[in-house]
Amino acid sequence: MEDARLDSELRLDSFEICWSEAVHRLDELTVRIYEPLFDHISAIASRASLYAGTIPLAAIDASGSAAQRNLGNLLHTRLGSVLCVSLEPAQCVNVVAACTAFVMRLIEQGRRLHTSEHLEELVRDRDPSLELAATWYDAFRRETNSAPVIILNIVGVERYVSAPLNDFLHSILLWARKYGERNVENSIADILGVQKERATLPIVPCIYNTTPSIALPRQQTPSGIPAWPAQYLASSVLDMVDLVHCALPDKSVFWERVVCEFFISPPLMLGRSVFELMRRRFWQVEASYESIAQTIRLAYLMHFSTRPLSALYSMPSYAELSEYTPEFFAQMRLSLFGAYAEVNDGKVSLTDVPRSFMALADDDKALVESLSMHREALENHSARRESMLRAVSSLLQYADIPPPHAKQLSWSGFVSSSLEIEPPFSDWNSGRAGLNVQTPTTPSARHHAQLLKHITSGIAKERIPSLVSALNEHARSRFQVSEHVLQEIGDWISDEYNAVRDSAPTSLGASVWTFDYAEPLSVVLEGAARAGVLLALDAPSQMLASMCATLVSPSGQAELDSRADWPERETDNTEIHVLRNASNRLDGGDIPDVCRLYQLYRDTSKFINLADWFDAFVYTVEKAEKREQAQGAKRQRTAADIQHLQLRFSLGINELAYMGLLGRTGRKVDHLLRTVWDLTVDPLPTNTR
């Protein structure tokens, strides 16, 4: 369709732009909900060097929040000139390893703020130690004329071994105190308003617990203070710190204020099927920033790698597309005019085509230049949808929703239903959604529109002015506070909700700037597809019989009323009966070579010898052939038969490797060739290196 190099460059550039915008948007929303925590840590850090004798330690409860592995980067982005050092459990196996990792991370973070030849010379060819860290920090402070606060992040404190962690923290606290006693200059001490011998290194350790902890007995902790830090920190550490408690927002807050907000205005519009897939994974598999970002990135990658028209995402000029073939422009027209095509008596005709589109039927340049019009239509649709959802958000905030509808009228449900994209630009199936996807919090769009007309009746009249002021400018310009304002607000929001769903983008715009295919994402992200492949390889006959029974005989419960008689019981036409008959017919039949090889590989895995694997494969083939032969006479194999078996063996192994079921082996290729196929491998010349 087009020049491969040009197309790949356009798609790759578009993907990188789109993904960088998505990461920026996700980080922006995440920082917004973590703003109170960052302000708290910033206040602690600003007073860190003023603590005399004790050092502030922030105990952050993250047990009910979404997992966040890039907290250090977010802290650095929000607080600016701080040195954020994050350690992993594998780096804290002992105090020496932990201190070494701390010093290396500290110097690495310092390079992000300032670097010079003198600083590099200090650390070159020297073992990372706390003494080196003190020397480096002194030089860094003099060159930058500042004393940046060191924030030490221990995320998931319950995953660390207690003894090495406490030894490491105790060493760091002693190091910070000794540094203040020996190395803080008089001028800095005077500025800070403390005595020289009482100043300490500005460091704030932050420990996070990511799983709920068992409560300690009441007498061990003062009233109102969380008990979990005492479960992980030794008394020698607690005596040296001033414990400060704070908590991360709940995961439901992260879902509504980060994920839902992202879907309202993303760089590339994602539809309802992707939203529902992400919601299921977030609440049932992994509630984390990384799982959300992974799904979004995979959706964007799939869009730009599988859809040719995604090359138009950045709206290239006609000159940039001059090397594209007529087939590419034909696909653009097919996407544009396909929405107006009707089939009558086997003939395709176009109806209700806008006049402005007719000029694009033959002019490639005009077709490319019209992309701005389709992009603008999509942006107008997105802006209108966002305005409607903001109004719904204000309404939900001020409405006293009765319990039967509280779960159904959730912010997440409204966002989900507003993302529906019409086929063929989506694999969302509203018919099957009620069976295996839809939950009480995700009713249909039609149901939402009906409920919106009734919830305003429960709003208290004294809250009407606050509600009206919270709505957008369009709503405030249309309504005045009166006795009929509640009905007017409800009617307007309901009408606007339906209008947004009707104002879909053009088909060409949807082809380029939307993605809503959850099925291929699910295959990559979830384990059901792999489990199905393994089951088919392990028991091909049973899998085929089950598929046959499901297709031949649907369940009678799904077809008949519960009070009706079941003719299946009389005719032996039940699904179990069909399954048994199919199994009997398939039992004893030959199975594919790839299934033979997998069954031999299953129990031995990587420890199997390739030659033994081939011998076992030949044995199973001979056994199957004997069972098929009437007389069971053993036939002598010829050289051609052996070569044929070797070919079947190689093809089967290649299929398993292609499916990702075989790992790498450390054995050399020439050894395998000599062992299995008895081939001579030409040695390399003696002078070859």
Automatic annotation (TrEMBL):
One of its GO terms (biological process) is DNA replication initiation. It holds the Pfam family WHD_ORC. One of its GO terms (cellular component) is DNA replication preinitiation complex. Residues 530-677 form the Origin recognition complex subunit 3 winged helix C-terminal domain. GO terms for molecular function: DNA replication origin binding. It comes from the Eukaryota. This is Origin recognition complex subunit 3. The gene is ORC3.
